[in-house]
Amino acid sequence: MLNKIVDIVMQASKIMLDDQSFRVDEKDGVTNLVTTNDVKVQDFLQDKLAKLLPESSFFCEEGNVKDLSKDYIWIIDPIDGTTNYARHITVCAISVALEYQGEIIIGVVYNPYQKTLYTSEKGKGSYLNGQKIHVSNKKFNECVVYTAFSAYDKKYSNNCFEFCKELFPQINDLRRTGSAAFEICSIGAGRGDIFFEMKLQVWDYAAASLIVKEAGGYISSLDINNLPLDKPSLVAVANTKENLNKLLAVAKKYF
What we know:
The chain is an alpha+beta fold.
């Protein structure tokens, strides 16, 4: 099943790479964009994955594709990092997760520009281009932290800035790439150590959440481990349980 999903994702990535005449539209303002290729990639994935698992439903970013009625649910972000993609910044990825009865059991995240393929199956570890990966063992003061500033809902941005202002002296450095899936997977590969973002949608992190957990990491919201499908969440990720708890202790002051 995983190999078949990877093959479908690889085929879908050709739309991203080959069709450069895409149109860019706003969904609800200049900070939330969609391209015609987002829709094309999602349509392609839905068609192929539905044939692969006919008894499944889909929960996707684009359009009104929000069916949670089946045991098997495909959670898809056709292009995570659309603003990057629209500007030809090569930090963007296709993200596909398969959930079964409330648990993510397969995750695939692929950046066709950088040719980075993250894959994971529940209970079988996580891999980057076929090589097994693991989170780092960095202590809190050594951590590189990925974050964002609530770009889609800027009334929370000041909280994010104040949070980062307190966090920054306690860590190594901050990063903001514009793709949550890429950032969370990077933690799984030890290329970063902590991730935090306000109001993240499930398609942004579903596949990456399994990848980082199977690589030995931790993911949570402020007070819960099971993040909801149907509403945006505050998402915290860390390489160790100790670092997650330290991160959440700071976050609770501002969110």
